[in-house]
Amino acid sequence: MLLLVLSTTLLSAAFSCQNMRIMALDKSVVVGRTLEFTQFPVDGAGNFLVTEQAGTVHEMPKLPNCETPFSFTSDYKVVRFRVWFVTEWANTTLGGMNDEGLSVSTLYFTDFAKFKNPNKIKGSMCERAAVPQTKLATYILSKYSSVKDLKSDLNSPRFPIVWNQPDLGNPTIPVHYAIHDRAGRGLVLEYTKQEGLTFYDNTVGAMTNAPDYGWHMENLKNYPNIQRKEWKGYQYQYQGKKYLHAPSWTGTGFTGIPGDYSSPSRFIKAATLVSHLNFVPDAEGAVNKMFHLLNTADIPQGIISGGWGRNQQGEKVEFVDYTWWMGVYDLSRNCVYFRGYDDLSIKKVCLSDIPDVPSKINVEGEYLNSYIDVSAKLVPMS
Ligand SMILES: *[C@@H]1O[C@H](CO)[C@@H](O)[C@H](O)[C@H]1NC(C)=O
Fold first, then answer.
1. Mapping DSSP to helix (H, G, I), strand (E, B) and coil, where does residue 152 land?
2. Is residue 111 within 8 Å of 190, Cβ to Cβ?
3. Measured in angstroms, how far is the CA atom of residue 185 from the centroid of ligand 1?
4. From the CA of 169, how far away is ligand 1's center (Å)?
């Protein structure tokens, strides 16, 4: 019961996320995401990258009105991010990539997401594939190698029914999905109260949280002034003479770009950054660039309040929202890069090197900090 109360505190708080895509001159595709959430109210919780070989069987929970639980076998090697909560894995997969160069990022979609009530799946519907929203990312990574194939299945009965599953004391986990492949195609997949299953081509290469992708794209029209080129300055006329107040600084092209942490503002900034960036030669450069881009969305602990709750000792404390981790998917070379909060060093796992048995590694890394002491490397000035 205590755990339930604590975990309700954990997940009922605000949640934000960011997803970005860049393409290098050599056509390499690199996708990045940040994951923001409220700090864990308990010890023994953490974020992990888990790996599995092709051929892994995933059995879904039994549906109340169906005989046999749906299960699927993965066709590809998959790495994905999951949360360990004291004694068990949380149901939700936060996203990942497969060795065909497809990535899925699960992003919160508060107030908009709606999935099928599992009690309403019965009769002939039981013969269809059916997965909870918490495992849809895993299903897509296990079964699809391109956005094109996924897109052609979305409106067909081949694609699973997506039902609502609770997680960590919450009756639902409201999410939408940003999917990218190594051809550079992007898709945003949403299940909404108004429209049901909806999907969009992600042309701009950015996604955040609510509202839906269509709304965010409309909102871009509010920023027609944003550009890479510098503006001349403020101009006016007085008694027949022209005046120009030219700024004594650079960066005026982006004057007025939102910099706050709300989802609409983060979308504008992310879309602007990825679409106004000058060239990146190759995947190596794109991975480095992506970490710099994600750093613009980094939320330090203490800025955003996730509300008040009780910690493990039962004391009333303020929980803060912050960037738990960042992940970068190199879809062209099949590697994932990531860093945690305390450990700022970047770790890398390539799908070609994952073990034969399902394996895991803590995203936070081994260090409380990631500093390298270079005192011994100081050399005399010549
Ligand atoms: C995952 O969902 C099932 C229902 O399908 C629920 O019984 C279980 O408690 C959930 N797990 C967690 C960690 O909340």
1. helix
2. no
3. 33
4. 8
pLDDT digits (tens, 9 = 90+) for 198-240: 999 999 999 999 999 999 999 999 999 999 999 999 999 999 9
CA dist list (Å): 275 to 20, 153, 242, 247, 278 = 10, 29, 34, 25, 9
Burial classification of residue 159, based on how many CB atoms lie within 10 Å of its CB (0-12 exposed, 13-18 middle, 19 or more buried): buried
Residue nearest (by alpha carbon) to ligand 1 atom 13: 90
**Amino acid occupying residue 338:** F
Write out 283-314 in H/E/C secondary structure: HHHHHHHHHHHHHCCCCCCCCEEEEEEECCCC
Residue with tokens 């001159």: 25
| Rounded Cα distance, 325 and 191, in Å | 26
Q: Are 176 and 190 in contact (CB under 8 A)?
A: yes
| The CATH number fitting domain 2-223+260-366, selected from 3.60.60.10, 3.50.30.50, 3.30.1360.60, 3.40.630.30 | 3.60.60.10
Q: 92 pLDDT band (50/70/90 cuts)?
A: very high
Q: Give the 3-state secondary structure of residue 336.
A: strand
Q: What residue segments make up the domains of the chain, in order of their start?
A: 2-223+260-366
* CA dist 300 → 83, 105, 297, 304, 378 (Å): 20, 21, 10, 8, 31
Residues 6+ apart with CB under 8 A from 148: 181, 183, 185
Write out pLDDT tens, residues 259-318. 999 999 999 999 999 999 988 999 999 999 999 999 999 999 999 988 888 888 889 989
* Cβ–ligand 1 contact at 61 (below 6 Å): yes
Atom of ligand 1 nearest to the CA of 167: 14
Per the structure block, which two tokens stand in for 23? Answer: 């393409």
